[in-house]
Amino acid sequence: MLIVVSACRPNHVIAFIRPKPRQPPNLATFVVPLQFNKLDLRDYLFHAYNVEVTSVRSFINQPTPRRKYGNTGKWFRPRSQKMMIAELVKPFVWPEPPAEKDREPFDHATFTKMEKMREDQIKKETDPANIPLRTQIKIPPSRRTLKEQAEEFMESGEWSNGKIGDGKWTEVEKDVPV
Amino acid sequence: MAISAMRPSMGALGRISSAYNSSSSSLPTTTAILRPLTQTATLSTTASLLKRHKYPGARDNKDHSKHRGESAVRRTGTRWRLSMSDEPLPRPVPRDQLPAIETDPDHGLWDFFPNRTTVANTPEEDAKHGRSWSVEELRHKSWDDLHRLWWVCVKERNRIATANWERNKSKLGFGEAEALGRDREVRATMRAIKHTLTERFYTWEDAVKLAENDPEVDLTGNGPAFVPRDYLEEGETAAVEGEQQIAETAQNAEAAPAAALDPVTISSSKPQAEAPRL
Predict the structure, then answer these.
(1) Among B54, B56, B99, B260, which residue's CB has the most CB atoms within a 10 Å radius?
(2) Which residue does chain B place closest to A103, by CA atoms?
């Protein structure tokens, strides 16, 4: 593997980040690998993208400790993330984010609905002061109609699963007293 | 003591009169009193100039605290207008009134986006991708082609990472699975490139070992590297010569158009900026 791990063929992934609302257009933010330094970013941008940079600022975001498996597992700290802000020679203005109606191809409506459901569920589960009593839980209408149907069948006794046995299987020990 | 207790303008008056008394003591006192009060000291202490500038709404400073209420934190500015210049200072223009900044259409950072208007591809567009390059296909490629393809892959991965970040942060919607599928194919291509180059390296190593023992090959770097030897005997050479000539002309005729029309070779004359995206 001598030849493949060479300086001319780096394997880094760099993400270009949308600037903050009042950030001037000559600053470009990137998420870079942790081992990157300022000179690396400068050379990378110049040689791969032909972008000239006057200076680079860097910082590391350290995430807060989290638990594995949601709420129950071992505590750990997720890997830090390095960000760099390059001062560009030529300013770059980002395109506007797509409007609500243009997010249709991403199925934005379903996405937001699912996200809200998930958040509500987490809030419900994690709030110890808000555990409803059984009498306070609202019975969904589907469950109520199912119960009514079941009671109706029990009364009439007309229910069957619609399958007729082929007669091969007969109860052998029918007469044996249990 | 009495002078210092007076208002500043009155104190200045006293100082001016004493200055006259000390400098022109030979003159009679009556002329000294009758002379108009003009400025003689370097510092202007005339009563009219001593009047402090007042901005509208300024209060009377009764307590003689000159800097009361001034704060650098609250950006109050000085209480008294400075008398150094009456030039109006430039006022900052509000951000929304500034002219719009034009982005260069050939800016290199556009390569982080799929096009000039969108940052993240829709899932449908992301799913439109083919398979990765196989090792067998890449074995026929030159070093330059492989190198260029590697950089196309690197840029594509950066594009995917940028779109992922944007999709998450701006909450655009779904599309992560499609982006991952695309990324997987790109990574498979990069792995195939590394595989090909490693194979090529091992082949080269073996060739060097063989060449060290080959009398036809000269590895010193002086003179031609390959000098083929004629193994044929003198008598046979003349008989075979005619056949060789015919074979060579046929080979040359075949090789010329094949090199020109070889579909697997990307022409290296194209600059990197115009190279097709993956």
Answers:
(1) B54
(2) B172
Q: Which residue has the tokens 């030897």?
A: B229
Helix (H) or strand (E) holding A2: none
Confidence (pLDDT) at A122: 86
Question: A-B interface: how many C-beta pairs under 8 angstroms?
Answer: 110
- ipTM confidence: 0.74
- CB-CB under 8 Å, B273 with A28: no
CB-CB: which of B108, B124, B162 is closest to A49? B108
Q: Which residue has the tokens 């993400």?
A: A15
* B109, B117, B202, B208, best to mutate vs chain A, most A CBs in 10 Å: B109
Domain of residue A134: give its range: 100-156
At B169 the pLDDT is: 94
pLDDT band at residue B20 using 50, 70 and 90 as cut-offs: very low
Q: How many Å apart are CA B173 and CA A116, to the nearest integer?
A: 13
Q: What is the mean pLDDT of residues B170-175?
A: 93
Distance (Å) from the alpha carbon of B227 to chain A's nearest alpha carbon: 29
Residue A35 shares a structural domain with residue A83:
yes
B12: buried, middle or exposed (CB in 10 Å: 19+, 13-18, 0-12)? buried
Segment B79-105 shows an average pLDDT of 80
For residues B43 and B46, give the distance between their C-alpha atoms in angstroms, rounded to a whole number.
9
Count of the separate structural domains present in chain A: 2
Q: Is residue A170 part of a domain?
A: no
CATH number at residue A35: 3.30.70.330
Q: Tell whether A41 is covered by a domain.
A: yes
DSSP conformational letter for B183: H
How confident is residue B45, by pLDDT bands cut at 50, 70 and 90?
low
Tens-place pLDDT, residues B187-245: 999 999 999 999 999 999 999 999 999 888 988 888 888 888 876 655 555 555 555 56
Read off the pLDDT band of B89 (50, 70, 90).
confident
DSSP string, A55-83: EEEEEEEPPPPEETTTTTS-EE-PPPEEE
- What are A160's two structure tokens? 């069957």
Residue A69 lies in a domain: yes
